[in-house]
Design brief:
Layout (H helix, E strand, L loop, with lengths): L1 H86 L2 H19 L27 E7 L3 H13 L6 E7 L5 H11 L5 E5 L5 H10 L7 E4 L3 E2 L4 H9 L5 E7 L23 H11 L4 E3 L7 E4 L1 H7 L4 H4 L5 H11 L3 E9 L1 E2 L9 H15 L3 H11 L3 H13 L5 E5 L6 H12 L5 E8 L3 E6 L7 E5 L18 H13 L1 E6 L7 H4 L1 H5 L3 E4 L25 H10 L8 H13 L4 E3 L2 H8 L7 E3 L25 E9 L5 H14 L3 E9 L11 E3 L8 H8 L3 E3 L10 H9 L3 E4 L4 H5 L5 E4 L5 H16 L25 H11 L12 H13 L5 H19 L1 H9 L2 H12 L1
Parallel strand pairs: 1-2, 1-4, 2-3, 6-9, 11-12, 11-15, 15-16, 16-17, 17-18, 19-20, 19-22, 20-21, 22-23, 23-24
Antiparallel strand pairs: 4-8, 5-10, 6-8, 7-9, 12-13, 13-14
Helix pairs in contact: 13-27, 15-27, 21-25, 28-30
Length: about 900
Amino acid sequence: QLQALQHEREQMVAQLQDAQHECGQMVAQLQDLQQLRSVEQRQQAQSLASAESQAEQVREQRLELIARTRDLSRERDEARQLVRAIETTRLFRATRPIVRAKLRFERLIGKKIQPRSNAGPISSAPSPIASPTLPVDVIVPVYRGLEDTRRCIESVLRAVCQTPWRLILINDASPEPELATWLRGIATTDARITLLEHEPNLGFVGSVNRGMAQSQDNDVLLLNSDTEVADGWLDRLRAPAYSDRRVATVTPFSNNATICSYPRFCQDNDLPEGWDTARLDALCARVNAGQTVDVPTGVGFCMYIRRAALTAVGPFDEEHFGKGYGEENDFCVRAQAAGWRNLHALDVFVRHCGGVSFGAAKGPRERAAMETLRRLHPRYEGEVLRFIQADPARLARYALDAARVLDGGKPVILAVLHDRNGGTERHVFELASLLRQQARFLVLRPAPNQRVTLRLAGADEAFELSFALGSNDDLPSETGIRDEHGDDYVALLAILRAFGVCHVHYHHRMGHGVAIAQLARRLGLAYDFTAHDYYTICPQITLTGRNQDYCGEQGECSCNACLQCSSAPDGQNIVDWRRNNAAFFNRARFVIVPSRAAWAHLQCHMPTAPFRLVPHTDIDPRTPPDEPHPPRLEGQRSLKVAVIGALSVIKGADLLEDAAAAASRIGAPVEFHLLGYGYRALKTQPSAYLTAHGQYAEADLPGLLTWLQPDVVWFPARWPETYSYTLSACLQGGWPVVAPDIGAFPERLAGRSWTWIEPWQSSAVQWLAFFMGIRERHYLTGTPPVPPLPVLPELPASVLPGLSPRDWYAGPYLTELPRANNTGELTPELRALIAAHLLGRRNGDASLRNLRRLTLQLLVRARAWPPLAGLVRSIPYRWQTRTKSWLLK
C-alpha cells in the first residue's frame, strides 16, 4: 500500500509539473499577446497622430492658400490700377514708341525675357504656442567703450523681469585693458553671467555665433554693448516671439534702429528732451501694450531669436559678412524665405547709442554689407522700401508722441508760426524747452493748398498731422450745420480739444487765413502774440522799400505805392491792413515785443495794444557774458572781419561784397569772412577780399567763431531787426562787434566795450574806411574805443514786466493760463482721432511738392554758378523771394 501510495504521489507530482509547464507556456503566450497589443496600440496612436498632423497641415495650407489668394487678388487689383494710372501719364505715352522699338530689337537679336518669380513666404492666421521654461541667453559681444558697456550690463542686471535669463558676455579681444578687467570683475558677481574671451578678435558675427552655440535649446537675444534696457523689457520681447509658431525674431523700438527708430522713423535720434530710457519704455508698455507689426528684417542692436528658427535657418553667415554688419538682415531674409516672421514689438523701447564698436570703420563695412545683401537677396532692398512707404508702425509712434504731450497733465499751448525757419521757430523751441516742466507746446504752421500742419515743438520731433482748411465752401461743421472753413477744420478743432489745448500763442500770421485767426475764439481760449518782425504793420515784413533799404516809414502814401509792386494778402491797402491787425492785437492777452525798437515801431500804429517788453530767453541777464578782450594786431596783419548768417539783400549781402571788392582794388589790410552764404554767389578771392565758408549748423556757430578767431564781427543789416540771435552768439562768445544804428542793435550793445555803432546808410567805401580806421586807432595800439551810449525810447510802466525773461515766462505768462484740460493719459478719443486722420489722409500734393523742391535746388545751383551771379543780382529781390516762398510751400 505504501509503495502504491508512493507511486500515486510520483504520478501526481509529474502531473503537477506538467500543469506548471503548461501554465508557464500560457503565461509566455499571454506576454507575447500583450506585447503584440502594445505594438498595435503604438502603431495605431502613431497613425492617428500622423493623420491628425496631416489634417492640421492640410487645414493650415488651406488657410494659407485662401489668404494668399486674397492677397494676390488684392495685389492684382492694385497692379491693374497702377498700370492704368501709368498708361494715362504723358511720360508713358511719350516713351511708348521707344519701348516698342527696344522690344523689336531684342526679338531680332533673340533675347528672351525671363519671367520674374513672385514666390514668397505664405501668410496665415497666427498660431500662438506656449513659451518654454528655459532661460533666454542674452548675448552681449564687447569690443570697445567701457562706459557704454557698463551702462548696458548694469541695466540688464538691474531690470526686473519674470523671464529667466543667462547673460553671456563675449570679450572679443578688446584693445582696452580697463574694459577687459571690468568684465572679469562683473562676471564674478552673478552666477547667471558667463564670460567668454577671444584671442584673436573674431568680429561680431563670429562672437555671436559662438554665443548662440553655448546652448542647444535656449532662445537667444542679441544685445549691443551700447544699449540700455528697463524693467520688463525681456518679458515684453518674449511674449510676441510666442504669439505665433512662425515667429523667428522680435525687435523693439529704439532711438537708433533704422526702421524701428523713434521718434523719427529711419533716423538716428537723441532721446526726447526730458525723457530717459526707463520712462520712455514704460510709456511704450502703457500706450502700445501687446502691439506688433511685421517687418522685412529685424535690427541687430537688440534682437530676440527663437531657438526653433535658429535651428531651422542656421547661424549667422560668417563667410559673407565677416567682422559684422548686415548679418542680421541676411538671417531675417533667410528666415522669411523659410516661412518665418520677423516682428517689431511696439511696446518696448531700448536705448541704443550706435556705432561704439565699429567707430569710423562702420561706413565702409556698411557699404560692403549692402552690396553683399543686394547680391545674395536681390529683392531685399525693394521689400524694405515698400515697408518704409507703408510705415505700419506710424500710428504707434504718433500715439507715443501724443502721450508724451499729455504726460503729467501739464497745460498744452498751441504756438502758431509761419512756414519758415529762423529766429521765430528757434524762439518757440526755446520756450518749449525752458517750460517743459510746466507746460507742453504744439506748433501749427501753414502748408500749401490752404492746409496747415500740427506738430510737436522741437527740431527732432516727427509727429505731424495735415489739415485742409479749404475755401468758403458749404461743408459740414462741428455743430452739424455748416462751416465755411471745411470739415478738416472741424477735425483740427476736435484734435486740439482732445489734446487739452488751453491757450493759443500767435508768433506769426503769415500764410494763415481767417480760419486760424479765429482759432482761439472757436476754442474759447485767450491768446498772446509775439512780434518777431513788422508784418502786422508792413506786408513786406521788414519795413524796407523797393531799394531793399529801410524805408523810413514816410507815411501811408509811400506804403501804398510800395504795395503796388508787392501787394498785401487779399489786396488790402495799408490802412485796412493795419486796422485789422490792430483789432487782433487789442483782443490779445499780451502782445510781446523782444526789444524797445520793436515796440517803438509798432505802438505808433497800435497804441492801445497790451504790449509787454520781454526779450528772448537765449541769454540769462543774471549771468551776463564776458566782455571782449581782442588781442593786439602785430606787424602788417590784416584786420579779420567776420559776417554771420544767410545773407539776403536786406541783411547786407551786396554791401559785404562791395566792401570786399573795394578792399581788393586798393589792397586794404582788411579781409572779410562770411560764416554762412549769400542769396547768390558772392565775389571772393582774388576779385574781392572775401572768403565764404558756407552753411553751418546753428549749434556749430560758437565753435566756428573760435576756429576763425575774427578781430571783429560785423552786422551789415539794412533793416531794423527786432532782436538777432546771431548777435546773441557774439555776445555770449565775447567777440568785438560792429553794428548799424538801427533796430535792436543800439539798445543791446549800449555800454559794451570793443563795440561800435555806425550809421546804417554808410556806403561800402565808407564801411571799408571805418574798418581801416579802427585797425589803425585801436587794434594796432590795443586801445579800446569808447563804449556806445544807450539811446533808448521811453516805455510806459505797463510795458515793462519788471522780471527777467525766463522768470516772466515761468511766472505771469503761465500762472494766468487756465488749468490744464487733460488727464495726463492718452485718451481713446484722441487715439481714434489721430488714427482716423492718418487713415483718411493721403498726401495728394506730394508729387507737386517734390517737383517744387527739385526746381528750387536747380535754381540754387544755377544761382551759385559764377557766370550767372550778375544776372541773378539784376533780378528784383522781391521776385526772388516770392519765387522761393512759392517753391518752399
